[in-house]
Automatic annotation (TrEMBL):
<protein>
    <submittedName>
        <fullName>Uncharacterized protein LOC108826864</fullName>
    </submittedName>
</protein>
<dbReference type="GO" id="GO:0006383">
    <property type="term" value="P:transcription by RNA polymerase III"/>
</dbReference>
<comment type="similarity">
    <text>Belongs to the eukaryotic RPC34/RPC39 RNA polymerase subunit family.</text>
</comment>
<dbReference type="InterPro" id="IPR016049">
    <property type="entry name" value="RNA_pol_Rpc34-like"/>
</dbReference>
<keyword id="KW-0804">Transcription</keyword>
<keyword id="KW-0539">Nucleus</keyword>
<dbReference type="GO" id="GO:0005666">
    <property type="term" value="C:RNA polymerase III complex"/>
</dbReference>
<keyword id="KW-0240">DNA-directed RNA polymerase</keyword>
<dbReference type="InterPro" id="IPR036390">
    <property type="entry name" value="WH_DNA-bd_sf"/>
</dbReference>
<dbReference type="Pfam" id="PF05158">
    <property type="entry name" value="RNA_pol_Rpc34"/>
</dbReference>
<dbReference type="InterPro" id="IPR036388">
    <property type="entry name" value="WH-like_DNA-bd_sf"/>
</dbReference>
<dbReference type="InterPro" id="IPR007832">
    <property type="entry name" value="RNA_pol_Rpc34"/>
</dbReference>
Length: 223
């Protein structure tokens, strides 16, 4: 039994592209610097994914769209990928800059190790890294160390350990193997990264940030 195939869409008189390609190109352009994946295009245009793939291949050959390096997002050639699409400050050409992140994490650990007190305020760590990182970036690095069970976030109180700091001030202290105290690290389930991830709201199976591309989630699985 022969299978029926959808007739090829007629070529548009405008720009030499057919109606499917014109519809897809219009949607991609509407997404500007964010672009769109094959799945998103198919859902928005009601065109079958196989036909979307064929159309986008043709549009790429015609140099009307491009694929963002390191992701599956397609953009119109007149737009540059936005910061969110590139993964933010920690990505280079769509790839996570692991070496940079690990280096900054080591610097933060060293700051805590050299501190005279057991806890160090966030403001102090930010001051040490002000030439390299913004306050937000420093907080992200510290959050990753928390997920790694290397440090913990605490709020200062009236105890002797925090007596020199403002009440409620966000501080950090070393724990686990790098604390020098010999404490055991928490189990793998306790350190699952998703719960405390600052990007959890952007994480989707087919998104720029996803479980399949997250190095911290993979690290947790390999624990």
């Amino acid at each position: 039994m022969s299978t029926r195939r959808r007739p090829a869409a007629p070529r548009s008189s405008s720009g030499g592209i057919n109606e499917d390609e014109k519809k897809i190109l219009g949607f991609i352009r509407s997404k500007q610097g964010m672009g769109a994946t094959i799945y998103e295009i198919a859902a928005a245009t009601s065109i079958q994914q196989t036909l979307v793939k064929k159309a986008t291949t043709s549009l790429k050959k015609s140099k009307l769209i491009k694929e963002n390096k390191g992701t599956k997002h397609l953009l119109a050639v007149e737009f540059e990928p936005c910061k969110e699409l590139q993964g933010g400050d920690w990505y280079v050409d769509g790839a996570l800059d692991v070496a940079k992140i690990e280096g900054l994490k080591e610097i933060c650990v060293e700051i805590l190790q050299r501190a005279k007190q057991k806890v160090v305020p966030l403001d102090v760590i930010c001051l040490c890294l002000e030439k390299e990182l913004s306050r937000e970036q420093t907080k992200e690095i510290l959050d990753n160390l928390v997920l790694d069970n290397v440090i913990m976030e605490v709020k200062s109180n009236v105890s002797s350990e925090h007596s020199a700091m403002r009440i409620g001030e966000v501080c950090y202290k070393l724990i686990g193997k790098k604390s020098g105290g010999g404490e055991a690290r928490d189990g793998a389930f306790a350190s699952m990264p998703c719960g405390g991830c600052p990007h959890i709201g952007l994480c989707t199976p087919d998104g720029v940030i996803s479980p399949t591309t997250c190095v911290y989630y993979q690290k947790w699985l390999d624990f």
